[in-house]
Amino acid sequence: MSKSVYEIWLSTADNKERLRLPVLPSSVSLSIGNKNESVDISNLGEITIIQDPAPKTIQFSSFFPAHKTPLVEYNNFPKPWDAVHKLEKWQKDKKPLRIVVTKTKINIPVSIESFDYNETAGAVGDISYDLSLKEFKFISIRKIKVKVQKPKKPKPKRPNPKPKPRTHTVKRGDTLWDLARKYYGNSLEWRKIWNANKDMMVKRDKRNLKQPGHWIFPGQKLKIP
């Protein structure tokens, strides 16, 4: 019996573990469902909401032979229980596999939905099985960069380069010596007030030329530097 041009392979995603089916199934069923929903809306009737296609389902049946027969596709095929344990391990791991059917377009990632087996009656050592696979959808998580704005620090207030000058309105009995003690804590600082106001004070009373700051009058506004 001539061998088929087709080969059916199952492998892990990294292709480190592989299993070629020693006996090809008589048929492979591939179905594509959908998740469309129908709803009844008052006065409009039935509305169909089209959803994304459901994953493909692949189903087939075959057997793992204990001995070489004309149905076996290649030499050095795995022992039946070795093949069974490999499939059970893959199913338990819950990791995606890949099925490839050569000479066809079937090359898709899958997960094992069900794997049922039993020893074939009349064929000692052979293990028949039914395998159902479901297309595995890889999900790529889109990363969104969120720019977090740092709270703006309030700008420090700049000191006024030209602070508002202090003034003092002269009252009856005021003297520059008293004002110096009041504002500077030292009567000997009276000349600061005199130097800041001498033009106005001399203009008001020429006697201030001979006796600086001695002649001040109520109502005068003096700068206090």
TrEMBL record:
PANTHER family: PHAGE-LIKE ELEMENT PBSX PROTEIN XKDP, POTASSIUM BINDING PROTEIN KBP
CDD domains membership: LysM
Species this chain originates from: Ornithinibacillus sp. 4-3
SMART domains assigned: LysM
Protein name as catalogued: LysM peptidoglycan-binding domain-containing protein
Highest taxon of the lineage: Bacteria
Chain positions covered by the region annotation Disordered: 148-171
Coiled coil start-end: none
InterPro entries according to UniProt: Bact_Kbp, Dit-like_N, LysM, LysM_dom_sf
Compositional bias ranges of the Basic residues kind: 148-170
Stored Gene3D superfamilies: LysM domain
Domain LysM: residue ranges: 166-224
Taxonomic lineage from the root: Bacteria, Bacillati, Bacillota, Bacilli, Bacillales
